Amino acid sequence: MENFGVILNPLYFDKKIVFDLLKYLHDKKGLNFFKIPEQEELLPDFIENYDNCKNVRLDCILSFGGDGTLLRTVSFSLKTNAPLLGINIGKLGFLSESSLAELEKSIDDLKKNKYKVQARMLIKAVLKRNGKDIFSSLALNDAVINKGRSPRLIDVSVSSNRRFVVETRCDGIIASTPTGSTAYSLSAGGPIISPLMDAIVISPLNPHVLTVRPMVFSAKDIIRFKLITSNEKSILQLDGQNSHMLEDGDEIIITAASKKVNFIKLSNRTFFQILRKKFHMGKK
Fold first, then answer.
1. Would you say residue 284 lies in a domain?
2. Active-site pick, 14, 20, 27, 67
């Protein structure tokens, strides 16, 4: 491996330490680094603009930040078909495999083929209004319907494969992937699912009726949400981005995406070992 994409959290307070490390790896190990146009001014000149390098094939994309930065790196990965390696310089960094202190060793392991690639499911969300598709995008973690800043609850109808499941008054509802099951969905009381599975988790946000609980659907299902009554501030949000204002009667259709995103796995730590370490699962 010698060609690496780079994405950095622009809000990180000590960018120089990242730049110095990348320059060291560039000079000592002959690595080539490439950036997206949106970070042209953020990253130094020795990191080339990928769009100006037509014949370059990326071997891996390094995401410097926390889980939010890694989510924003997914589109770059899908565009280049390069696997992701998260370098945690954030807080929890649940999805990250490496750190600044470990990066040189991680690069050495990559060059020696001491790694695995894990494919993770994405969901596709389509927003329909008056029978027309007005927005469509992919998400690694989740698609969230939220009442926004209004104190009023919204009414959402849920169906699977055009069969009615439930209607609920709530603050909103989350459709998550197995990867996203340890994110917002978990905070809403949803189940933890192995990220190597294919499934769609539906978790209501503060439902008015306590018997409306999180549910797990097959990844082959077509999940349809219909906004029965809402307010002018209701929104659809994918992976904390791509916000769209919602109206009464809007439908949001959730399916498993045809594409998956690849993650680099360097260590032998299992998903459950990471849960125990980072979430203190099972500890008193």
1. no
2. 67
